[in-house]
Description:
This protein is an alpha/beta fold and 239 residues long.
Amino acid sequence: MSTQNDMETPTRRWDEYQAYLFDIDGTLMHCTDAVHYFAFCEALTAVAGRPLNLDGVVAHGNVDEGILRDAFTLAGVPEEVWRPRLAEMRSFMCSFVQQRSADLCIHILPQVREVLAHLRSRGAILGVATGNLAGIGETKLAQCGLLPCFDFGGYSDTCEYRRDVFRGALEKAHAFAGNHASVCVVGDTPEDIRAAHDNQLPIIATATGIYPYEQLLAEGPEWCVHSLTELMESLSAKA
């Protein structure tokens, strides 16, 4: 697969799909607070019976349940201790973030609203496909006013891997747009690209998170942009 500088694949332009799946953190927004982080720390500590945090755990491109798994594994907490309590931890973390929603510091990334409005004007179904638990992802989207922009959410509840989150989100997209609808992913990490391709989905990779453009490009996304601004600028170039 190659990246197209003219924002087109051999079959369609970036804005000609019938449904889109957007990642949240690093793609739609940046959260500069530590509310979500401390939700992890509190849940990990409660189950382990000793202070734990996310030091050494890869969080970007991971999913919430996978982050818990990796943190417990790194800390040497046996699986039989933490796995039966996953549902309890999910509920705790969602409540923790929801109760502190006023402390969330969220910055919507450039041209996000414009891209969403443009796709909506073309009749596209819009959804999210994120590693956030539903109660956390929805809280973030609601806090910055983006929740009404989306028709459905694909969240990581009961999913330990991103490819499974995307598979569930794809099923929801087909439920809204039809079984044969064309679907495109928008994300900011190598894991987003791999998960999209694992589900035979094209992806617009945007270097708005922690991963540089060159690293994303090396993963072979259908499109790779420095920011969503480039997508909107491509429309002007076509006019």
